[in-house]
Design goal:
heterodimer, A: alpha/beta, Rossmann fold, six-stranded mixed beta sheet, four-stranded antiparallel beta sheet, 10 strands, B: 11 helices, 73% helix, 0% strand
């Protein structure tokens, strides 16, 4: 964690281990007239497990979509291991494993084929491809299920499959958007156990969004609290709690910075969430 | 959405613990082409696996062309209502048209898949791999072609069973596969472009339904162009399906055509289709 904040924002950082996993400055994005992300600065050191917290509609997913090259920021800069995400998106994508919020695997393929698809899309060489696919499946406990069509998988299995898909490229940065939403408690525990394992090995940087405070408290090195598109506080969970006084929980911190709202919809319209809910409804029905 | 600039740092291989990306450093012109070929191969592989896992669509999609050939074809052959060129039986004339039609039907609804992938979050994941938009669209267009080839094989066999005199020349059959791929690639791009505008499965279904029959009837699939009224001939001349049918007719039953023109129009339309859908893809990813 020594690489954190040792370089002024904006200075050219050489890629590689010395550069922070993520450095973004002055990020801004709006959907029409709705300002989703405003003046967001983030500095995440290589090897860190970082949690981006905030109520629905706070701008977490939009921020993630800019970090993963899915959206071009209206303003501001993003660098992943020193590589500019706007100027060199292809290079940045090679460094990232991304698991979106929705459970997303191709149900008409087997688990193994889903992982192999991503191995191919990440140009994993043919001679090691099979082995890497097997390793990723085995790391997620899907060796046997890998031969079955994903149609037959439970939600927890699909999430593990997605992690296997993200891991097959041996990414240096794993980006997880709400990784435990919609999972049963056992599946959730499995995901967190996996993240904890990654944190210990410290080879992989993890950036995740969540609104489970207790989990962020347990598993993240540092967290940032986001509300109405801006970052309200950044630090270790202990620092943030101490700032509020004795006996404060991360939940209190969350309430302090967001006014207790678990949902921004009442104030900001929450266009994105409405749209997503509608999409999900359409997909299911 | 071009690849990274030359001299880009080999960032991923800086960490000895992580195997870096293999020999596809961005920036070399050949690397772009190799990546395109690799993505097309990958997405065609996925399509073949899907066909293997679920063949029902293959059979259900064979019903309609079978009806066209069996009922429409046999009847119209008997009543001599449509004079096919060179005095060949109408059924022979019809078979390549129905082949083109059935691959059109596959391709025109291919955009539904991309909307499904968008709604399911799969598209976002695909777009966070080092795959340029145009490579993703090209891959999907050719995957639609793969599905169409499999369908085309079914219809060729069906036609032969019904007594249509078809070529057995392997080179010409290879040509048929190529034309079918080009045609499907174009119409699937049309579908993906509509998907990029409509942004919903229901709307895409509606638009797809609304345009397939006009595309079919305004082509030379059912009747020779010279039998059409003037205004329809004009439409047929700008309908890529007509060029696909003409090429298939020459390859399968030997009715003369300008093959270079047919292939050129299909290839040009495909490139245009890929360009437009690639430009519209970010609307889906937003």
């Amino acid at each position: 964690m020594t690489a954190r904040a040792d370089r002024p924002a904006g200075s050219p950082a050489p890629p590689g281990l010395a550069a922070p996993a993520i450095r973004c400055a002055g990020l801004r994005y709006s959907f029409g007239t709705h300002l989703a992300v405003d003046r967001v600065d983030l500095l995440i050191a290589a090897g860190e497990t970082f949690g981006l917290l905030g109520p629905n509609g706070a701008g977490k997913t939009t921020t993630i979509r800019m970090l993963t090259t899915l959206l071009k920021p209206d303003q501001g800069t993003v660098a992943v291991f020193g590589v500019d995400a706007v100027a060199q998106p292809m290079l940045v994508r090679r460094l990232i494993g991304y698991v979106p919020q929705l459970l997303s695997a191709d149900a008409s393929l087997t688990g193994r084929e889903n992982v192999e698809l991503f191995a191919r899309l990440f140009d994993v060489p043919r001679r090691v491809r099979g082995q890497r696919v097997d390793e990723a499946l085995s790391a997620m406990g899907l060796t046997e299920a890998g031969q079955r069509l994903v149609k037959t998988y439970s939600g927890g299995m699909i999430r593990r499959l997605e992690l296997a898909q993200a891991l097959v490229n041996a990414p240096r940065l794993l980006v997880l958007d709400e990784p435990t939403v919609g999972l049963d408690p056992i599946a959730r525990a499995g995901v967190w156990e996996f993240i904890a394992g990654l944190r210990q090995s410290s080879h992989t940087t993890v950036l995740m969004t969540t609104h489970y405070m207790e989990e962020a408290d347990l598993y993240c090195d540092r967290v940032a609290l986001m509300h109405h598109g801006t970052i309200r506080a950044t630090g270790t969970s202990a620092e943030l709690k101490a700032g509020l006084g004795e006996g404060a929980t991360l939940d209190d911190v969350f309430r302090h910075y967001t006014g207790g709202a678990l949902d921004d919809d009442s104030e900001q319209g929450g266009i994105r969430d409405v749209r997503r809910a509608r999409r999900t409804a359409r997909r299911l029905g | 959405m071009t690849s990274a600039a030359p001299g880009a740092p080999p960032a991923a291989s800086a960490d000895p613990l992580r195997p870096g990306p293999p020999g596809l450093p961005a920036g070399r012109p050949l690397a772009g082409l190799r990546r395109l070929a690799s993505r097309v191969a990958t997405l065609c592989w996925v399509e073949l696996r899907k066909i293997r896992h679920d063949r029902t669509e293959l059979y259900t999609r064979a019903i309609q062309p079978a009806l066209w050939l069996l009922i429409f074809g046999e009847t119209f052959t008997r009543i001599h209502a449509i004079a096919a060129p060179n005095g060949i039986p109408y059924l022979d004339f019809l078979a390549p048209g129905i082949l083109a039609q059935s691959t059109l039907f596959i391709a025109i609804f291919y955009g539904i898949q991309i909307i499904w992938e968008r709604d399911a979050g799969v598209l976002a994941k695909l777009m966070v791999t080092p795959t340029p938009r145009a490579a993703l669209i090209t891959g999907k267009a050719f995957a639609a072609g793969v599905r169409s080839i499999v369908q085309a094989a079914v219809i060729v066999v069906l036609s032969a069973v019904l007594g249509v005199t078809l070529t057995l020349n392997p080179l010409k059959l290879l040509g048929v596969a190529l034309i079918v791929v080009l045609g499907s690639a174009f119409f699937s791009c049309l579908s993906m472009s509509i998907a990029g505008v409509a942004l919903s499965r229901d709307r895409l279904m509606g638009i797809g339904q609304a345009i397939t029959m006009p595309l079919f009837f305004s082509s030379n699939a059912l009747y020779p162009e010279r039998l059409m009224p003037g205004w329809l001939q004009a439409i047929s001349k700008v309908n890529p399906l007509s060029y696909e049918v003409s090429a298939l007719r020459w390859l399968l039953i030997g009715i003369p055509t300008n093959l270079a023109l047919d292939t050129g129009v299909l290839a040009g339309a495909t490139v245009a289709g890929i360009t437009v859908s690639s430009l519209l893809l970010p609307r889906l990813a937003r």
